[in-house]
Task: structure prediction
Amino acid sequence: MNECTVSLDDIRLASARIRPLARVTPLLEATDISGDVTPARPLFLKCENLQRSGAFKIRGAANMMLQLDPGDRARGVITFSSGNHGIAMSLAAKLLGVPAVVVMPTTAPAVKVDAARALGAEIIVHGTTTLERKARTEAEAASRGLTIVPPFDHAWIVAGQGTIGLEILEQCRDVTAVYVPCSGGGMLAGIATAVKCLNPDVRVIGVEPVGASRMAQSLCAGHPVTLDRVGGIADGLLAIRPGDITFRHIAAAADEIVAVDDQEIAQAVGWVFRHARLVVEPSGAAGVAAVLSRREASWSRDGITTSLEAGGPVVAVLSGGNVEPAAFGRYILSGTGTRD
Result:
């Protein structure tokens, strides 16, 4: 994987660097995978919903901010985010004592906007797509002398998210497959790089919504593809285009991409609550949705979809737990839901 920007050493250094700001999250066994396929494989949940800030994003944000020039960091940081990365950067900024600005979409859940604001960040609401937020962020950064901490497409961000992969292999040494929610691709790129460098036999599967299948389409095309529109209840998985850096890592290291629909995601939110007593947002439940639905791969490096009929343990990353209470209630009661 010498064409990749981020190495295993980068991820290991990030793991040590971020320890003061990010938690080592637990890996919990939910139960045997339920359904009509037997024998079932044990399912473990990597609980990034229990991470500081309620999602995995603090890992990448902390890794980047701790490496900034002290003078640049002191002038302030800015990012564009649908929610969780903005919260994470705001938390890291508060802990490091620096100003933070977050550009969020008009469709961002109130629970995420309020969380970033409560951490002291200035909130700018602008547009609905990643590209619109990115353009506003670049303009604000240029006019105000702020440093951009991007949500996924930066080597330091990818290395920070890759620390999840190190922890999974330490916590479950016989893991055979890891399911990772995917939007812009920072977490999938980092985890795939870490896991494949340490154990190439473990399959790494990215999971995206049917209504935002940019990664599968990009991998099939051989280059990043920009979607005309995206939609679905998983608000954290609605980037319209993969990052350039993340695409290269995923193309080099991931095994499959699976797409799940809103009903499957909502049912997974309820399943996690019932079987593990955990609160997870729709974006964070996408990996579990893929495991439970047994969807065929929408892209696969070797033309194979990972079998869940028999074998060793499977890990699904619960990437976040920042969910609107009313929406969460609908998901766990009915197994379906619509976006607020």
In short: The radius of gyration is 18 Å. Residues 34-39, 336-340 have pLDDT under 50 and may be disordered.
